[in-house]
Fold each of these.
Amino acid sequence: MESLGQGLAWGFSNREDGNMSLFYGESNNSLGNREKFLRTLGIDYKDLVCAKQIHSNQIRYVSDSDKGKGALSYDTALADTDALITNKKGLPLAIFTADCLSIFLYAETIPALGLVHAGREGTRENIVSETIIQMQKRFNLKAEDLKACFGPAIRSCCYEVGRDFKDFGYGLIKRDSRYYIDLIEANKKQILDRGIKKENIRVCGICTSCENDRFFSFRKEGRSSGRMISAAMLK
Ligand SMILES: [Zn+2]
């Protein structure tokens, strides 16, 4: 995986690593899957800070007292949260997805970290933009200090949405009178609009639905779909 700079452990899992959710899909092996995958990043799975994601634009600052919330049971995860930010070292943040986009935000100079869950609802509510604004205020960082990277997500080739999204804005694509959303293009625009340099944004070209054999996809698999983890920690 490409580097976002020194001092950061980060990565995202794929289907081969197994289901990482304690709530969605077949979760009997999820803790073991997390332990094995996170070990490769140098992260202790028992320290993980997880959120009960609700497709909102709610952002939560994570402090040392949150360590381990949601690590061993879904009940203890941070409620009603879709973005996590911290400047504390040794606190691993986690977002779980199957088609939705995960976004890593990192400012090596501070250092400060953000991890965002952006589906169509969160994207429409500008969650990544709001997260950058909060990080700038709280950590006193400049836009040019920030680097951004995207996890695997569903792309406009496969992500058809209803007419209720016809005013979605940037990232909405119309084909044969149907509407499609490209989560990466939409969020990349929000990040650029916050002043992050283009060369500091790394896009991965994966579509989770097209490459369903390698990634979990809610659109392809429905309610039984497992979740991939995106995890990051300041070292
Ligand atoms: Zn696709």
Amino acid sequence: MRSPARQGMAVRRSFGDDALSYLTERLDVKRLRDTLTAVVRQAKRNKAFDGDRWIGLALDGTGAGGCQEKKCRWCRPIRNKKKEIVGYGHKLVMVSVVGKELTLPLDMELYGPGDSEYSGGQRLLRRSVKSLGPRFVDHVVVDGGFATAPFVHAAGDLGLKVVARLKANLPELYEAAQRRFAGRPPDQTFRYGSDRVEIWDADDFDPWDKLRWQTVRVFYYRQHKPDGKTVEAYWFTDYSRKQAGSRAVFEMAKSRWQIENEGFNDAKNRYGFEHICHHHPNSMLINWLITALTLTLERLYRIRHLHRGKHPVLEPMELLRLLRLSLLEPADTS
Ligand SMILES: [Zn+2]
């Protein structure tokens, strides 16, 4: 907006924050979503996920654009433990396509007051499966907040298997699994990078009353790090042991952390994801989706050596000129 490179690039007219707000309010979110889908589909066609037996969708929620006062109707109050309002912020759910090595952010859904991560997540899941097409992904990986019968059934109706974190919000199943695996040696032990993993895995648990599955498969892992730290978690899935062994479902569960580390953390630390320029739902989505597109393209270049476009090969001198233009120091006007 204010870059002195503008002049060098023959963009003479300057413009301010208002113009950018006006523009982002009116840009078409669907076009950007379609672009992201097209990039991810092309990546799969070009074998970016080759070597991955399964491809999943990982869903996760986060907050961005914190502020002291409510600035738009999408600002949700942030409360402390005493339920007092301590500020405002925006909430969104992101979905990424995850393989073993590659995590490609695909889409986001904003949810305002009166709405929830859970409903936003379901809308996002339906839209993602519809846009990617049938059989593009095999399963969806989610945290405990989505581990409910309606969500699991919605995923099943879309043709997806579910790999979900099991926590105390499903008390019967959670306690049954803890009782079963306690004091019993692990079913399998394997190395995962420099870590040692013990895994317990059984597929004959009773479903909780609202779940329409015949039985539930629960697995529990204890991951020992070289520094002595241990990470452990319970998960459930409707993959049979024949379809996916203990190690395979463990790796699917781990991909849930990819969206946090390679999705939000990367986006927030390196791409200014948390800063909101303009409190308008369309503007925010445009900003976030552009970030998602950037992350996806950057990863395809870095990890999968995406082929260059059809533009002519530039001479080194020409590349240097472009680089200089983009790095121009601001003129000293003091
Ligand atoms: Zn707002």
